[in-house]
Amino acid sequence: MRNKIVVRNIIVFIGVVALCVISGKDFLRMHKPDPISTSNPGISEIVMLSEYSPGLKGTAADTEVYILRGEKPGGKFLILGGTHPNEIAGMLNAVCYIENARVESGTLYIIPRANNSGYTHTCPLWGMMDIIDFQLPDGSVREFRVGTRLTNPIHQWPDPNYYYGNSGRELKHSEVAEIRNLNRNYPGDVNGTLTEKVNYGIFNLINTEKIDIIYDAHEAGPEFLRVNYLIAHEKAMSVGSMAVMNTNLQGHPFAVDISGATSYGLSHRALGDNTEAMATLFETLNPAQGSRRTKMSRELVLGGFDKNYVEITNRGLLSSGELTEAGISINERTANHMVMCRELMNAFSESNPDRPIIVSNMPSYDDFINKGLENILQPINS
Amino acid sequence: MKRNKIVSILLLVAMTFSIVLTGCGDKKTTEAPTSSPGPTTQETSATNEQSGKATRYTSKETPFVTLNGELKKYESPFYLTSVGQSADVSMLDALMKKVGAEYTYNATAKASDLKDVKTVIIATGASSKGLGAAGISAEDEKARASELLEYCKENDITVIMAHLGGVSRRGKLSDEFADMVLEYSSGIVMVEDGNDDGKFTDFASRKNIPITLINTIADCIEPLKIIVGK
User: What is the assigned CATH class of domain B63-228?
Assistant: First the structure.
């Protein structure tokens, strides 16, 4: 009888260990960075954000800054992707610029994974996808982690019961997890939490490199009232409105709104207030982020189709983020970010003809739609 | 002992069932919780009240239409300002630049700024963010607008109301600002989405002033060219 119990316990123990190993493999994969192709001769330099925020050195939140310098001087444009890692079109836009753009005049600074720690986990109980992939024409597969919108608690813990940092945002009760939200804690703190050190790194980079325009790429669920909106700090309203107008003339019905004066800690407010740069943020529509979506699937994340939101749209219940049967694919969402970036550069150049930002070799909107990201992303250098 | 075994087996079955349930779907997916946090649907009333929709005049093929008269060139110098501080004034500024208009722009212009001006184009639409950024309250804005509009009336300055924000610039406060400007307007230019209930076409009809309805904001270029004579 006793032997039977011992054998049973051993079997259970082995089973538990096997489950841990199998699931642990998935968790560990989330800590492995997705490579970005550096074959683009337009890349001048890759530095780490810890050069601007020393406390990040050696931490999971340190992240690459890709610099693409033009032959001629001009304005300086910062593209932020992955502020919220699960808003994947923003990161993919940044990667597309890194892997394809040639800068003729001015400089691009690109941070594709602004919250690098956020890529190492997904949000428990949200039913999120962890990895997306694209098969390239050469047969290779590019994988990208999806991650979630907050810094991983294993990298920044515990969340305080109450927090009032230099962003001016008061965090209490259920809001305290926002202390790990990169887009709530600008301008950051060189000696603050891990997230605040990232915030500070970006803030310090903007000041040190004298960035002219900041583009913070986001996505939002259909219920969000500012889907396909460029949110601009008052200093960026003129250039932002010109850019949005040009996108409309090209058939992209985007809109512009001014940054709220009390949007404490958000990039478009806090970086606009605390630096000389024109701060903007753009939101594309991602049905996978909506709280009324159907089951998570590849079709939802990459195809951007969700029958619930088509039904909600057809019933006239959405005043923003309407979704049709065609869905809104990752190609289209990434293209929307690319177009918005491009038009901001054009509008800046029009307003500052002595310091233009001229970028070539980027695929067109139609290329994104017709050829797809699998033909725009580059194979990883061996 | 036997009862303990039955309970253990039942627990094991329940746990397995729960794992299967949460693990179902695609290889890397799980079901979304119904209580997962996220934004809520807001401001749906405008799209729910479509039973009283006004006649639609514009379309892709007919990008703009003028009712109650003809769209004409107005007298320069032009001045562009806002009543309500929405971002639409900034979009109108971009449009005016696009058509090469010569004008002065100040979203918070005062009556004293309008000396020698012949035509004021006023972008209406309330934005709490815009008011906040300008550091003024809605009441301050109404007082400024009232003073500005009275000055226009006393000095024969033509007022053109521009409503470019569509349904998102309809609502109590936006309509209050629009109503203030309408009373002084000699013409209306608007994106037709904002006239779903016929408010602006009805007003133009009653006052017999021209109203130019525009299909989308991108279709404003041609009407603006006519207004500023470009």
Answer: alpha beta
